[in-house]
Write a structure and sequence with these properties.
By secondary structure, the protein is of the alpha/beta class. The protein has three domains: 85 residues, Udp-n-acetylmuramoylalanyl-d-glutamate--2,6- Diaminopimelate Ligase, Chain: A, domain 1, CATH 3.40.1390; 207 residues, Mur-like, catalytic domain (UDP-N-acetylmuramoyl-L-alanine:D-glutamate ligase); 139 residues, Alpha-Beta Complex (Protein-Tyrosine Phosphatase, Chain A), CATH 3.90.190. Helices cover 33% and strands 22% of the residues. The strands form four sheets. It has a nine-stranded mixed β-sheet. Strand 9, helix 5 and strand 10 form a beta-alpha-beta unit.
Length: 466
């Protein structure tokens, strides 16, 4: 949304120096991606201070800069750029985003949960795009900076789909206060971020802040397969619409067909209608994610045949279940963006059942932020690998050694279990053992950077074009 700087300054309670009629044509916190005409916010992070880049922003023809009230350095350039002084550039960014949200005044759907947020957000956006112009979160910009930056892209779109993440209590409540979502979808509640919470029930309470923060008409989309999400309905006085694969729900999956590495097919029952969908994404968890998107789409009047086309055309986001086939005759499933015990377990079950491959190899990176239960949660994934008939498990970094302990305790022999301290060594080990007929699952927490292991495979072996 293009706004004159005097309106911008007023919305954030700032003091403007310079021409107020100059219009901000975009908004940025990173001079590397700043375009001429953007308004630059000099936000501070744990390892950087945006004030160090104010001069660079002005040299790149920013329309203005938002800085701490006492900041002077880099402003003596004689540029026409406006300078807005505020108490906190982060708070100013959020205040402006709230102002834009009020001006835009279209429906917003907030999406949160322990796993599947980004994929579900993308699926909802794809389904709604069959009928609407959609404002959506780019990538996983789902925090106190990403949500405001998404809102500042609002212009002529009809509806918004915003992902909302958190690692502490109160964070989703704060995001909802900025974005004022009218509808909220909660995917699941899993044991993630336990380093910062006393229990999974506390995580559920933090996720439920989305429902508490909804504005009229206050619609909650709840995954009935998750008992903690299902329980949120008891404290919510808005409209509830449920979806489920295993449980009774308003939108219910009746049957599924596994298409192996090609995806899956499933039938959705709603009212008196049964509709089959074919989806090219992997894993049972993606059926639930797609069902969530179908639930939102149908609730907004997207025709069922259009939703079928949208689901059939889905593509995995980068590092979120991409299948890479290699000329040598093996395939890798790149799910390296992030991991948690439930998501890893579901993907292990999937790879254990997928037909057409002689060996199943799991590269299991350490799962971070699991707190005092970390060892047992890692071991549980190892036991699942043994039950699924996985041929080889490679644990990568730290607590991933406990994955091997669990697999060993469940009967896997030592020659099938490997441990390496980092992703680079995982890539070297994998490159030395891979052969035709293998399928490899690569999954770990973001901090493990398991994409490096895949990059080694890409360097050593020719990949086929998708």
């Amino acid at each position: 949304m293009n706004l004159p700087l005097d309106e911008v300054a007023k919305s954030m309670g700032g003091t403007l120096s310079g021409p107020g009629a100059v219009v901000a044509r975009g908004y940025s916190i990173d001079t590397r991606s700043l375009n001429p005409g953007d308004l630059f916010f000099a936000v501070k992070g744990p390892r950087f201070d945006g004030h160090d880049f104010v001069r660079q922003a002005i040299e790149k023809k920013a329309s203005g800069v938002v800085v701490d009230a006492g900041f002077e350095g880099g402003l003596e350039t004689g540029s026409d750029a406006g300078v807005i002084r505020v108490g906190s550039p982060v708070s100013a960014l959020q205040a402006l985003a709230h102002h834009v949200r009020r001006r835009w005044a279209r429906p917003i759907i907030g999406v949160t949960g322990s796993a599947g947020k980004t994929t579900t957000k993308e699926m909802i956006s794809a389904v709604l795009a069959k009928k609407f112009d959609v404002l959506r979160t780019i990538g996983s910009l789902n925090n106190e900076l990403g949500v405001p930056l998404t809102l500042l892209r609002a212009d002529r779109q009809d509806i918004g789909v915003l992902e909302m993440g958190m690692s502490a209590k109160g964070e989703i409540r704060a995001l909802a206060a900025i974005a004022e979502p009218n509808e909220g979808l909660i995917t699941n509640v899993n044991p993630v971020h336990l380093e910062f919470f006393k229990s999974v029930d506390e995580i559920a309470e933090a996720k439920a802040e989305l429902l508490e923060g909804l504005f009229e008409p206050r619609v909650g989309y709840l995954n009935n397969d998750d008992s903690r999400v299902r329980g949120m309905a008891r404290k919510f006085n808005g409209k509830i619409i449920t979806f489920g694969v295993k449980s009774v729900a308003s939108f219910k999956v009746l049957q599924t067909r596994d298409l192996g590495i090609g995806g899956s097919a499933f039938t959705v029952h709603h009212g008196r209608r049964d509709t089959e969908f074919v989806m090219p994404l992997l894993g049972a968890h993606n059926i639930t994610n797609a069902l969530a998107a179908i639930t939102v789409g149908a609730s907004h009047g997207v025709p069922w045949e259009d939703m079928q086309a949208a689901v059939a055309g889905l593509k995995p986001a980068k590092m979120r279940g991409e299948v890479i086939r290699f000329q040598l005759g093996f395939a890798a499933i790149d799910d390296s963006y992030n991991s948690n015990p439930r998501a890893l377990t579901e993907m292990i079950r999937f790879i254990g059942k997928v037909p057409g491959f002689s060996r199943k190899i799991v590269i299991a990176g350490e799962m971070l932020e699991l707190g005092k239960e970390s060892a047992e949660l890692h071991q549980g994934c190892g036991r699942e690998a043994a039950r699924a008939g996985v041929s080889i498990v490679i644990g990568v970094q730290g607590m991933a050694g406990q994955v091997l302990e669990g697999a060993r305790a469940a009967g896997m022999t030592e020659d099938r279990l490997k441990f390496v301290p980092d992703a680079a060594q995982a890539g070297e080990l994998l490159a030395g053992m891979v052969r035709s007929g293998d399928v490899i699952l690569i999954k770990g927490s973001r901090g493990v950077k398991l994409e490096q292991a895949l990059q080694t495979l890409r360097t050593r072996f020719a990949a086929l074009e998708n």
